[in-house]
Design a protein that fits this description.
- The chain has twelve helices and two strands; from the N terminus they run αααααααααααβαβ.
- The longest helix has 29 residues.
- By secondary structure, the protein is mainly alpha-helical.
Amino acid sequence: MIKRIILILLVVAMLIALRVPAIAQNNTTEDLLVSTATLEYGVYFPLAEAVIFLTDDDFIEAFNLLLAFSRNNPVHTETDLNRIATEFYFQRSYERRNVISGRNFWYDLPFVQARLNPHEIALLNQFPADFAAVASSARIAINRAENRYTTGLHLGNGDAFRHALWNGLLAQRFHALQRGWSLSQILTRTRTWTDAHETGASRPADASVAQFETEQRMDFLNNALGRYFFERLYLANRNNVMEAAIIREIEDSIDRGSGQRIRTDAQLNWTRAQMVNVSTWILRSTNTAGLR
């Protein structure tokens, strides 16, 4: 009996020493997360903590992997995509933790809570495949805004452009994954994610409740603008909604005043502290101020 116990303990020790993440074979997202995420010391490693180790390029690679699978397998389910995405996230996280930090360093990090709010984390666990589209489209929107504007990236025209473009590109990515969704389903899932980003956000300590609510209204309106332009292009072109077309439409719409901002032209170079000292924030139409 004692020898059997010792043998079992040795086997367990060997498995722990290997530190190899399990690859899930379950059909449900919940089972998939639990079995795939059993990493160091047999401890459940949450998906939301795994993705913090991934880079922007990793999420682009993950999306392209999902896109290739959807095109090569016309008859597929969301569960198929979730399995592929989850395995990719954990495997890449495992590789990067070993290369970047070595043993156990990741226990000291603040994890993804610094980047994702609780609403977004809940969606990540429910729809892992979505997150590749969410993160990659967000990065493109950020880069485009920074390349297009010299000022106004917060509360200005650049802020409006970034939010609108994120929504338009995210809808385009959900459409590209060919899950058999209707236009309504594409727009609903896009809004679900981008609303979660806004509603789950915490009010900054230096902002008043009124200022925070005004900024949220601005973001919601610009998010809706981006989804509107995807919808318009979808109805006009159906299966050929191109990223370049979305970017062009949203650039033109922000320049023409369709978006919403808070900063006036005179406030474009103001610091955050100066803006907070303005007691009342007012929404106004976007324009071309701050363009490179």
